[in-house]
Predict the 3D structure of the following.
Amino acid sequence: MRIVVLAGGIGGARFLLGVRAYAREVGAEVTAVVNVGDDLWLHGLKICPDLDSVMYTLGGGADPERGWGRVGESWTVKTELAAYGAEPTWFGLGDKDIATHLVRSTMLNAGYPLSAVTEALSTRWEPGVRLLPATDDRLETHAVVEDDQGQRAIHFQEWWVRYRADILTHRFVFVGAETAKPAPGVLDAIGTADLVLIAPSNPVVSVAPVLAVPGLREAVADAPAPVVGVSPIIGGAPVRGMADRCLAVLGVECSAAGVGRLYGGRPAGGLLDGWLVAEEDAGTVVPEVTVRAVPLRMTDEAATAAMVRAAVELT
Ligand code: GDP
Ligand code: CA
């Protein structure tokens, strides 16, 4: 059995722990297609927050409290950068984390595509899952915001980390998406999968930029395998993070039904055959989609693997 998962960072990573546990049980292969819209260059280093969250989490090196970055991290470089007044000061890079970005940046500058770099970094972390960036090309999520400095587009990280999404926001733009190509292996993985899962990741700024790569949405919509999504919204609120603010920018209701309808049913030109919602959201209706209510809190690997089993049983 082959399982493909569309994923963002922390929610995607935690979900993948359960997918991997399920896959080990049944002998399945897992490919994760990961968002690159959050990626940015800082201090000459290429940072890939979502790929790193997934890689560190699956490799056992993530900080479980913070949710991002490395466990047992130190911040000497950050302090030294601050002493120089080096901008931006709102984005913290830990010392251990910086080693990852140094290796990645060196390889990218030497001409390796991000997919090859990710594979190289994965030989250390052995995530047990094939990690593919959605694209090797530049695709950056920007937020079009407005304040007393007027209207402008800022990088997603500035919007999320610096402004905490607390600024008038008109829309999101996936810069570079028109000319981006799916990374090698992505379309093939989706086309030959037995099951495609959409992780309970942020639908607006994690899953949408993956689907914005030309050909990727079509590949999922036309996949021979069933497509099942998992709601990141429980009882009308995100489990963590600011998906509510992101959905508000799109004018989409922050609910399991709202996100389910945003993805849409496949017969209606959308993506989903099945949609898992939390027990609190039993009774959710998404046109032309099989909806099932099950426990959706990823408290541990076993609970998360049970969600994956429920997704398989739905198909
Ligand atoms: P990010 O890129 O690090 O922001 O992470 P993702 O986009 O992959 O995941 C963020 C989403 O995960 C948020 O919208 C959360 O609501 C969702 N999430 C976090 N923990 C849980 C959980 O235990 N259950 C469910 N269903 N969703 C969760
Ligand atoms: Ca992210």
User: Anything to note?
Assistant: Residues 2-137+178-314 form a domain with the Rossmann fold fold (CATH 3.40.50.10680).
